[in-house]
Amino acid sequence: MRHSHPTADDIQALIDAETHREGPLLPILHAIQAAYDHVPEEALPLIASSLNLTTAEVHGVMSFYHDFRKAPAGRHVLRICRAEACQSMGANALSQAVLDQLGLDWGGTTPDGRVTVEPVYCLGLCACAPAAMINGRLIGRADAARLSTELEGVA
After folding, report:
1. Contact between 52 and 24 (Cβ < 8 Å)
2. Which residues carry a binding-site annotation?
């Protein structure tokens, strides 16, 4: 991450580095998020202008893909699978329990900046559903108590 408050020139340089690609919008969004841990709101009109799109079109693509953040993530990122196999094994109740425990909605970050909870659509652990991931580490057969313990362990 470069710095928390990118300038328009910083953002434009990232955009310009990807515009040579066919279908550059997703690579641009990924590049900006990689640099700043989120896609700042002020980047959307710059991207739109560079690609001859509307800001609403860029926003629509960004909001469609759950990987893109509007604000920097917490120090720890908990992803809970929302795919059908995990749902059939209780992921909806698990998700609600975790979100309630942390006082968050999907994509939210705790006020202390410690944890961000994000939905993900398949972690490849369908046989061990429900699945979750904390800081890139997979957890199969997850339940609220285990996720709480795991989060305490990364405090």
Report:
1. no
2. 81, 86, 122, 126
